Structures are given as C-alpha cells and as structure tokens.
Amino acid sequence: QVQLVESGGGLVQAGGSLRLSCAASGRTFSNYAMGWFRQAPGKERESVAAISWSGGITYYEDSVKGRFTISRDNARNSVYLQMNSLKPEDTAVYYCAARRSSGGSWRASGEYDYWGQGTQVTVSS
Predict the structure, then answer these.
(1) Do residues 39 and 92 touch, judged by C-beta distance below 8 A?
(2) Strands 78-83 and 18-26: what pairing?
(3) What is the DSSP string of the chain?
(4) Which of 32, 42, 54, 114 would bridge 2 by S-S if both were Cys, CB 3.0 to 4.6 A apart?
(5) How buried is 15 (Cβ within 10 angstroms: 0-12 exposed, 13-18 middle, 19+ buried)?
(6) What is the pLDDT along the chain (125 residues), one digit of tens a residue?
(7) Would you state the pLDDT for residue 67?
C-alpha cells in the first residue's frame, strides 16, 4: 500500500502561482512513477503531468506545458507540481497518483494504483 497526501492548494488570482506537494508513505516511493490529475466541477478527471520513477522523464498535457513543472524528491518521498501563470480554467481538484507499471499510458487514470484525496485549486479572474 502507498498512502498519498496532497497539500498546497488554495485560492489565487489569474497569473499567480501555486506549488502543490504530494507526500507518500508506505512502500518504496522510488519504485513508482507519479502523476498529477485534476477534475473540474461537472467534468471528467484529466491528466496534467507525470514523472518517471527516477525523475528523468516528464510528461505534460499541452494545456499546461510551459506553465507547470513536475518534480520529485525520492529522499523526501514527495512529488511536486509547480504551477505558474495560472488561469481560471486551471480551477479544479488536483490529485496525485502512483503507478507501479512502466507500461501503458501516463494519461490513463486506470494505470495508477494509488490516489490521494485531492487538493482544491481555485483561480479567480
């Protein structure tokens, strides 16, 4: 089992920044690739970014590329999402997730084995 706890969400004006953190406990964190997803009211959960177990490979959706940065610190069992130039359309509950498998698509929520409870990000215009 891996337990994931997100933090760092909040209310920010458009153009502002937030840094989300996800702390992991349980099994060896470095064995898992990590992803960030988000879900806006009335919409399906969507992928945002992902990072390989070593941190050497990162993926981003086009909607956040150049504005968001995913990183991890395996010594601290944590993954981060730095969000800059935030837009009102970034408003959502953000979730971190862990996957043991290296196959499949990083975008597919079904590929992830463990999920956090989510943290709310609200961007005002």
Answers:
(1) yes
(2) antiparallel
(3) -EEEEEE--EEEETT--EEEEEEEEES-GGGSEEEEEEE-TTS--EEEEEE-TTS--EEE-TTTTTTEEEEEETTTTEEEEEE-S--GGG-EEEEEEEE--SSS-TT-GGG-SEE---EEEEEE-
(4) 114
(5) exposed
(6) 899 999 999 999 999 999 999 999 987 898 999 999 999 999 999 999 999 999 999 999 999 999 999 999 999 999 999 999 999 999 999 999 999 987 789 999 999 999 999 999 999 99
(7) 98
What's the burial of 69, exposed, middle or buried (CB within 10 Å: 0-12/13-18/19+)?
A: middle
Cα–Cα distance measured from residue 68 to residue 62, given in angstroms and rounded to the nearest whole number: 10
- Write down the residue that tokens 């968001």 correspond to: 68
Q: Which residues contact 76 (CB under 8 A, 6 or more apart)?
A: 23
Residue type, 67: R
For residue 6, the model assigns a pLDDT of 98
